[in-house]
User: Fold this.
Amino acid sequence: MAYMPNADKLPDVQSLEPDFPRPIDRVGVRGLRFPLALRDRANGIQNCLACVDLGVDLPASLKGTHMSRLVETLEAWKEELGYESMRHLLENLQLRLVASRSWAKFSFPYLMRKAAPAGGSSANIAYDCSVTGELDGNRQTFLLEINVPVMTVCPCSKAISREGAHSQRALIKMKIRIARFVWLEEFIELAEKSASSSLYTLLKREDEKYVTEMAFSRPFFVEDVARRASEFLERHTAVLWHEVEVESMESIHNHNAFAFIASK
Amino acid sequence: MAYMPNADKLPDVQSLEPDFPRPIDRVGVRGLRFPLALRDRANGIQNCLACVDLGVDLPASLKGTHMSRLVETLEAWKEELGYESMRHLLENLQLRLVASRSWAKFSFPYLMRKAAPAGGSSANIAYDCSVTGELDGNRQTFLLEINVPVMTVCPCSKAISREGAHSQRALIKMKIRIARFVWLEEFIELAEKSASSSLYTLLKREDEKYVTEMAFSRPFFVEDVARRASEFLERHTAVLWHEVEVESMESIHNHNAFAFIASK
Amino acid sequence: MAYMPNADKLPDVQSLEPDFPRPIDRVGVRGLRFPLALRDRANGIQNCLACVDLGVDLPASLKGTHMSRLVETLEAWKEELGYESMRHLLENLQLRLVASRSWAKFSFPYLMRKAAPAGGSSANIAYDCSVTGELDGNRQTFLLEINVPVMTVCPCSKAISREGAHSQRALIKMKIRIARFVWLEEFIELAEKSASSSLYTLLKREDEKYVTEMAFSRPFFVEDVARRASEFLERHTAVLWHEVEVESMESIHNHNAFAFIASK
Amino acid sequence: MAYMPNADKLPDVQSLEPDFPRPIDRVGVRGLRFPLALRDRANGIQNCLACVDLGVDLPASLKGTHMSRLVETLEAWKEELGYESMRHLLENLQLRLVASRSWAKFSFPYLMRKAAPAGGSSANIAYDCSVTGELDGNRQTFLLEINVPVMTVCPCSKAISREGAHSQRALIKMKIRIARFVWLEEFIELAEKSASSSLYTLLKREDEKYVTEMAFSRPFFVEDVARRASEFLERHTAVLWHEVEVESMESIHNHNAFAFIASK
Assistant:
């Protein structure tokens, strides 16, 4: 590259004083794409292309943060995603950006093989997840978000109708703080057993029969599904705190139904 | 306004010659918001806030179009939406932009009151629609796009299961060219009768019973719904051409099913 | 309607006891479409088609809420949107659903006419807003969310480059709790003066010159814009609490930059 | 699995005669997630998680297609994505579904390392791409879609303003039919050199200076960018046909500008 300005002589506008000296809670970047290794119960490691958001606080005395350092810190971080590796990233963000708080969010589709319930043929299904870490001084928080699509069969529709009941795809959105490592698969299964049925990518005729009959034997409102998932999370020994929201794409309406529970 | 440059002296960069003298098929703006009056079967007129895209062709000899004139032409157009008013807009775009082809697309939610099938209480439901006009020289085309959410009950699931059948929300997407004015409501109703059931915003218990039983007595695949809607459009005397796509948010899968038919 | 079941005899499944008697924080519907009258500084009233979410709490002893009553309560509410009318809606939701907490969110595009800064021609521009009310027992909260797209010119890029500076569209997202009525227009203008420039729908050449020069004379980072908007909200006598997030679609990156400030 | 119905005895509803015997142009599934190997110029192979749509035609005489066979055919296909492997998949879809036409679309983010133009530090950037194949009898078509975000600096704004010019992120959307293998990277670079500047993930101060000055020395309208990309595609010896659309998120407007060219 022939052209090469002298970077040392370029003014550092970010380090000027701001016109309004207010501290900024979080400043950073959104939507970086980053290849990430995830722990996978079935295969050891799963590689994905995550979407990454990074941020730090900024004191009242500085006009701007140095955003390229956020990207550099991520680039220098070569670990598989976990509680400890997240801490390394967050500490490096604090150091490199001279910040008291650092924050990182990794969003990714998590792929699993799933066997059909009767015939057993398997295929891929993906769950949208994210892992967020924050380091405030020395205190780290770690948040899992896991979105599990499921099927619900309406108990009211079933009870009042001569035949059938409306069913639909619903999404169980869980936010979870944990005290120790837990497989994502464990929470996904917990969500799936909260609903009328789990979803599948490959169902042959005997499987479709199985899923339909299973789902109709377990009719649940969004309220039921939210309560079941919340109950199961409450009982999980590794879960410190959780929120559950279930949103169902009602097949008889053009609007959705939802139910939300936060753990106390 | 104190500051007022002499616009006549500002260079007209758009009228320069381009580096690569290729004709441009369509150039314009996307996402203008514009209050629009629609013809409404029940109420005479329905006011909406449309999203508008406008475009014209550009000859090989000109570097750029004058995009502000697209906005000005729309602003000067004060008519309710229809075939004739669309022509006025398109002609004005041709004149104002010195173009041979002009194009306009209005997208809007179309609101209807809908009565529950048993109890009769009514509430609002909206359908995403668009109207696109193009004027190529003197030849005008006019395209309706109407998206109608419906319910489908799976005939296979019903036939093979001891009880129940999976149902889900599906979307019927119709593109229609017409020879004369037709109410949007007519096409919406045509789509709804193509499916297992229409959707409603307000259903009391007796209505939910009615809708469930009605839907389960009319189980349809996406293929069935696409064929029915296509057949009904084919039979409609005002329809010159149509395409139908039905996409269903399968309640047993995390992927969608679709069926597409283009009229010959 | 010939078919009419006896609704009194249909079982009320919602009133059964749930399997897991956990209280539900919020249960309801999302995505209702509803024609709404808004107070408009220039025109008195502005009619829009809002998207409405409604919810209530549900005690541990009841299996399900009666969702159709949420829709009925909204249908029976015929007022223009405001603090008092929101209270009526929330009280009616509490009464009709036998709930201790009720919640309603109205989301809508808010349309304004905006005059070009030099030539003065005017056109429409829309801002995505929402108003959320919650009634917990007798205690009401009221939250405005206003999203204002603006232009930012990068001060660093300007300071270090021989010519130019990258600019981009950015979005100022404000959440505001207020003590008395304030026009939406007031907060929109406050946000716009926080940025390098306001956006316009119709700009003639002299206006484009004006906007470019104005914006380049006021280069701001996302941090600057967040601080300015937060400062202006802090100074506003009607504002009890606010959060501001600015997100810019960086024109030199394929990711966004953001800055977030919460009032203390 | 204890429960195992006798699949042979379950009715095959799909093979019934439809009520309206109309041929269906395309029926299938949308939104399957599938791990896919892509050819990568820098690394040989790039693994991604694609989103897959599959479809076939359906004769007038059959009520439904067998959608699970679409999934099974994909699951049985274990090849890296290319012209020949696409043909195998399409042939297998025709055979397995007893169809005359088969169709497959793979959508994925394509990741590249990109070095900053002055300092040379590198980071990841992703481009949304898709590859679509169709087999009609024995005739195969193959379509690339590549979306390349870039920067545009407005030549008009630059010419008329005392200082600066508005710039913004824009997206170059290319649809391309090719006669032989071409690296995706080649088309991405071709798009990037059509614009005022390429985008980067990691830019230090000297790079930001470089990019700003480079972009301001090459101001282009969306019309210019569309013409340049179209011209470069026209000259490319492997390109049989192309369409280019450029859409820019104008930093002075809240609407977008676009220009579209189809090759003759």
Summary: The first strand of chain C starts at residue 24 and ends at 40. Chain C has a mean pLDDT of 96.
